[in-house]
Amino acid sequence: MLKKPAEDWRAARRESARASVLTAAWGLVREEGLAALSLRELARRAGITTPTVYAYFESKNAILDAMFAQAAQAFVDLKHSLPVTDDPRHDLLADAQAFVTFCVTDVPRYQLLFQHSVPGFTPSAESYELAVGALETTRELLARNGVHDPRHLDIWTAVTVGLVGQQVSNDPGGDRWIGLVEDVTRMFLAQYAHGDTT
């Protein structure tokens, strides 16, 4: 059965309103940090009343979950946008550099995706599945480089996220740890790239 035009209009209006709330939420956390996300301030920025926020999101955590999903999708899209060459080492380095840039250019997004920065918030299974998809892309890229042990995937993610954490905490706006990405990639592959490449 086809939807009536009025139903289509209402659904489009609801989605537009939800998008406006999320845009306001990102603006707020990028200016003030994740801890500053309050429904009252969010409503003010979105030009609506606080109770109206609840018409679109059942809770603050629901807003955070939608933001997490947007951030995870942006990360997946970034990883899929990177060119695949016949040089897997080059591709791993490009992936690592893109990851670090993705994180340091939007610290609240990085904190939401890769740290537990908001007490009491855990992403929904649906939102988290997007992040798992990005991790699977990394696993495949490591396999192309002869790295197959799941422990080594954990080491790779710990090292790359660690570089971001150091950069964000100790040299915001600089490039001290960003400049180490190539060295770290080379060291990692020298230590762990001993399996068959795919």
TrEMBL record:
SUPFAM superfamilies: Homeodomain-like, Tetracyclin repressor-like, C-terminal domain. Keywords: DNA-binding, Transcription, Transcription regulation. Residues 15-75 form the HTH tetR-type domain. Residues 38-57 bind DNA. Signal peptide: none annotated. GO terms for molecular function: DNA-binding transcription factor activity; transcription cis-regulatory region binding. InterPro entries: DNA-bd_HTH_TetR-type_CS, Homeodomain-like_sf, HTH-type_TetR-like_transc_reg, HTH_TetR, Tet_transcr_reg_TetR-rel_C_sf. Pfam families: TetR_N. Gene3D superfamilies: Tetracycline Repressor, domain 2. This is AcrR family transcriptional regulator. It comes from Kribbella shirazensis.
